[in-house]
Amino acid sequence: MRRLVAGFMAIASLRAAGRDLVLFDTDSGIFGDDGAALTMLLRSPSKVTVQAITVTPGNVWAAQGAEYMLHILDVLKRTQIPVAMGAEAPLLHTVGMAKEFDRRWGGLAYMGAFGMDSAAVVPAPGARLSTRKPRRDAVNLIISEIEKHPNEITLVAGGPMTNIAMALRMKPEIETKIKRIVFMGGNIRVAGNATSAAEFNFWFDPEAARIVLRSRIPVKVMFALDICNLAPLHKAEFEQVVAIKTPLTELYREDLGKRFPGYLKKADAVSYMWDTLAAAYVLDPEFVTKSESRYMDVQSAWGQFYGSTVPLSDRRVAPDATPVSVMLGLDFKRVFALYKDRLTRVE
């Protein structure tokens, strides 16, 4: 019997060896692209084990994001996965700075959590507040998972990188123990979506993004707006997902249909595969058709270009920084098939 048990354990170990160990860092709203990205990862158990979910402020404040994540896990029946809140605000950016930016220069298209009550936590539509409570140690959790699994952890970052930057500052030695970070953020040749100069995740916490881009993490994979803009989701794609009736697709329908981008209200509504491209890359990197390696930085001086993505022009200021693999082209048919498959699976 002992030999039989040992054999099963060895087989399980071999199976796990081929998986990515993922920490999913998110600023999740009701569902959106964060929920879709998490669903893609959780429904790919042969490729990925999600160790934990850490929540950062961005689209909403961290407490609200954690509530939404707990609900998504309930719908997915994955309640065993730890959910931890970390930072409650960006490193330096504030509501006052955002409002003053808009007063001076205008064109602030999206404020995210800055436009919300930081004390309010409401349940997901049609649900009650979760009886489970998130942990409050996200930064320490990131550090401990990396230390327990050196060179094995993939960080998938779908929001501002405040939690990750704080972990790198608290324990700089973990930088070289991270397998890789795959993140959605930044804009290079295209306009921003928070301001004309900056993509939202980088704009919400430019200082955190700069810390990560200047870090020694061996592999950095960047999905900026440039490639995300090549993966639009129109009503036709939305209808392919919601045609399959499950609790998960009903939540998808409720959020994307009635809120942003409002597929049920507007025939020309469009969203994009933002965070879901980062998740898809962990599962099937071959959908990327073009990429470049660059040293990247973020404009962190407050002003009209706050949060914009720029080259690391003077390598002397960050001599140990590793380059960033910037994803630039994709096979939309292939990546959408992956997206649709994971979102519409009947479990």
Provide a descriptive summary of the structure in words:
By secondary structure, the protein is an alpha/beta fold. The protein has one domain (16-344): Alpha-Beta Complex (Inosine-uridine Nucleoside N-ribohydrolase, Chain A). Helix content is 38%, strand content 16%. The strands form three sheets. An eight-stranded mixed beta sheet has the order 3-2-1-4-5-6-12-9, with helices on both faces. Strand 4 (153-157), helix 6 and strand 5 form a beta-alpha-beta unit. It is globular. Mean pLDDT is 95; it is low at 1-16.
Helix content: 25-40%
Ends apart, CA distance between termini: 32 Å
Shape: globular
Per DSSP E runs of 2 or more residues, the count of β-strands stands at: 12
Major beta sheet summary: 8 strands, mixed
Q: What is the H/E order?
A: HEHEHEHHEHEHHEHEHHEHEEEEH
CATH architecture term: Alpha-Beta Complex
- Let me know the average pLDDT: 95
Number of helices: 13
CATH topology: Inosine-uridine Nucleoside N-ribohydrolase, Chain A
Look at the structure and give the CATH class: Alpha Beta
Total domains, how many? Answer: 1
What tags apply to this protein structure?
alpha/beta; 8-stranded mixed β-sheet; 347 residues; 13 helices; Inosine-uridine Nucleoside N-ribohydrolase, Chain A
